Each structure stands twice: as C-alpha cells, then as structure tokens.
Amino acid sequence: MKKSMKKLLSLGMAVAMAASLTACGGNASPSGTTAAETKAASGEGSFKIGGIGPVTGGAAIYGQAVMNGIDLAVSEINANGGINGAQIEYNFQDDEHDTEKAVNAYNTLKDWGMQMLVGAVTSAPTIAVGAESSNDNMFQLTPSGSAADCTKFENQFRVCFSDPNQGVASAQYIGENKLATKVAVIYDSSDVYSAGIHDKFVSEAANQGLEIVSDEAFTADNNTNFSVQLQKAQDSGAELVFLPIYYSQAALILAQADQMGFETQFFGCDGLDGLLTVENFDIALAENVMLLTPFAADAEDELTKNFVEAYKAKHNEIPNQFAADGYDAVYAVKAAAEKAGITPDMDASAICEALKTAMTEITINGLTGENMKWTADGEPEKAPKAVKIVNGAYTAM
After folding, report:
1. 163: nearest Cα among 387, 16, 393, 379
2. Kind and range of the H or E element at 396?
3. pTM
4. Rg of the chain, C-alpha, whole Å
5. Rounded to the nearest 10 degrees, how much is the dihedral formed by the CA atoms of 7, 11, 16, 19?
6. Element (H, E) at 112
7. What are the residues whose beta carbons fall under 8 Å from the beta carbon of 138, sequence distance 6 or more?
8. What is the CB neighbour count within 10 angstroms for residue 205?
9. The sheet that has 240-243: what strands, in order across it?
10. What is residue 287's DSSP assignment?
C-alpha cells in the first residue's frame, strides 16, 4: 500500500482492533544479549522492547551509544512507573553493521517475544530488518537509520533526519550562514548513506548560491588514500569541503589534508559524530570541523544537562548524538504508547496498528529537537542544528 494511506488505514484498523486483540507470546528468556542489556521487569505485565545495532565492528561507536541511550531511558521510565503502569523489558542484539546478522538479530528478538522494535542503528540493517518487520506488522522506530528506505513501510518511523533531508539542510546551513561560496565534496559512492546525502546536497547547493568546484567519490574498496580527492579540492580553490561520510574515513581525510598543507573548512553530517574517539587520531586536527547534528552535549537546557550528567555517571563518557537519538526514541515510544492506551497483553501486530496512528498525534520535547512531531510517512519534524568542534569538544553553533 502507498505510504500516503498510512494514517487512514491505521484509523480504520484501530476501530477493529478492540475485537481482535490476542495475548502476546510467551515470556521466552532473551538469548545472546549484550552485557549492557536492561531487564527492568519480567512476566506478562511488562512491555518487551527490542533493540538492534552494531555493538562490535567498525560502526560500534554508533551502536554502543544508541544502546546506552536506550538503556538510560528505559531505566528512567521504569523508575517512574513505566508505560501505562507497566514496566519495560529491554533486549539489545548486536548486528555488527551487517544486514544478514541484523535479520538474525530480529528473529532472535521475535523468539524472545518482542512487541516493539527500536532499531536498527545504521541504514542498511534498518532496511533489511524493515522488510521483515513489515511482514510481521511489528512497530519499528529507528533512532538513526537515515536512508530514505528506512521508512519505506507503514510500520516504520525514525528519530533522525533522512539522508535527503540532511543533504538539503547542510546546503541551506552553509549558504544561509555564508560559510563559503566555493565548496568541494568528497563522498562514498558505494554507501547508501553517503550517496543519498551527496545527491540532495549538490542539487540544493545551486539554490543557496554555492558553487561545487570539486565533486570526488571513493568506494569501500578504496577508502584509505584520499590524496587525489584532496588535491582536486585544493586546486579548485575550495573554501569548504563537505564530507557526508563516516568518522573513520573523515579522520584519515583530516590527517592527509594536514600532511599536504591543505587548510580549509570541513563540514559533515551525523556520520562524523565519533570522530573524537577514533583510536590514535590527533583530535587537534578536528579543530573547527562542523557537522549537522541534532544534539550538543554542552547545551545549557535542563533536559540536556540532566541527560549528560546521568549518562556520564552510568557510562563514564560524554554522550554523542546517537545516544541522544536512542534516548529520544524510547520516550517517543512511551508517548505514543500512552496516547494509544496499549497494554502488555496485546500482541505485536495490534500494538503496531495502535502506534501507527498515535505517532502522528504526539509531540515531545527531546534531546534532538523541541516540539518533535512525526508525519504519517514516518519522518520527524524538527529544526536542524549544527555543532563545531572546539578544544576537543562539540560546541553548539
């Protein structure tokens, strides 16, 4: 069915739902869960929320942060009475940023009795799991899966901006704040995340008076030596280099730019979050790097200050935006669940039908956006933000 029919169908199903609810599956014990798994409650009176993301492997910084953010939100909610008076039982599975392992993780969570899914973390696994969750009519809210197809189906929503939205918002931010007029782009053409942002950035750049003076790609098979791309950017007179890529490649690019004496501005998206934690990376090279991100740990609002304090106390580190995405995702589930009036004895499909409508009716003040709302297509509505790395820390711009 077309996504534009989502809300209409959900309203119709909600009427029939009361007559068709069945008890959820048995309380199978979670298997293969991480050490950080939160088990706030057990028994038939609890909601079972699953999570999927890379806890190990090359994208582990993202998955660990989301897992920790979810863990903190679950602990807070359970301590304050749970959802509609019921506690949350939480089980997070490692997918290693691999699509096949993500689907295996999803099936493990189904066997455990999952009723709602917060995941996956990265785009390709989120898309792969989405095909399964759609067939099962399982509610799926990804904190950070940003590819367009991460909300392809009616049961899928996201907390972060989509790749196309990040590309447009980045061009608008650079243009409106007059950061540069001549821009070079270095991106990974083999990655759906990077290519998606790149395409929309390039198309919006013209509307913002930005000249793309160099547009160079690399692939997963050639992602360690960027001398050619950097030389073309330097020769073109680029005043800013846009990097819609992940932090591991960005660290190499910054180091190689320094080695060749290329002094310019660098601007990226949420994939650059994690740059300051790359092993053996000289964080001085990241000074003044800018990135479009919905969260800055140094923000002065009470919600952010309390979150950072609690996160540091529990995990002994400063949270990044992925931790904030995970935290906001759980509170969005809570708000939608309370709006819909769901109960733990409902099965996953009935819960999904209720949440599809409720997600379009709630508004939350989260770490990643004030007055956040969701469209029937699963997209968040919130204002974009940017941060700059100053003295080794993310600073709100």
Report:
1. 379
2. strand 393-396
3. 0.78
4. 21
5. 100
6. helix 99-112
7. 110, 114, 116, 117, 132, 155, 348, 349, 352
8. 23
9. 211-218, 182-188, 240-243, 265-268, 290-292, 386-390, 393-396
10. T
The continuous run of DSSP H or E covering 90 comes out as strand 88-94
The 10s digit of each residue's pLDDT in 132-189 is: 999 999 999 999 999 999 999 999 999 999 999 999 999 999 999 999 999 999 999 9
Residue 265 contacts residue 179 (beta carbons within 8 Å): yes
Give how far the C-alpha of residue 72 lies from the chain's centroid of Cα atoms, to the nearest Å.
Answer: 16
Extract the tokens encoding 349.
């499909």
Contact between 255 and 279 under an 8 Å Cβ cutoff? The reply is no
Per residue in 295-343, pLDDT (tens digit) is 988 888 999 999 999 999 999 999 999 999 999 999 999 999 999 999 9
CA atoms of 294 and 71, how far apart (whole Å): 20
Tell me, what amino acid is at 333? V
Largest pairwise CA distance in the chain: 70
Q: Is 356 helix (H, G, I), strand (E, B) or coil?
A: helix
β-pairing, 116-119 vs 393-396, is unpaired
What CA–CA distance (Å, rounded) separates 308 from 299? 10
First to last CA, the chain: 41
Is 166 buried (19+), middle (13-18) or exposed (0-12) by CB count in 10 A?
A: buried
- Integer Cα distance of 218 and 188 in angstroms: 5
What is the rounded CA–CA span in Å between residue 75 and residue 80? Answer: 9
3-state secondary structure of 156: strand
DSSP 8-class letter at 25:
P
**Which residue's structure tokens are 């953010």?**
69
Q: What are phi and psi of 281, to 5 degrees?
A: -90, 135
How remote is the C-alpha of 297 from its chain's centroid? 16
Pairwise CA distance, residues 126 & 54, whole Å:
11
Beta-carbon contacts of residue 62 (< 8 Å; ≥ 6 apart): 53, 54, 121, 122, 144, 274, 322
Cβ–Cβ under 8 Å, residues 209 and 154: no
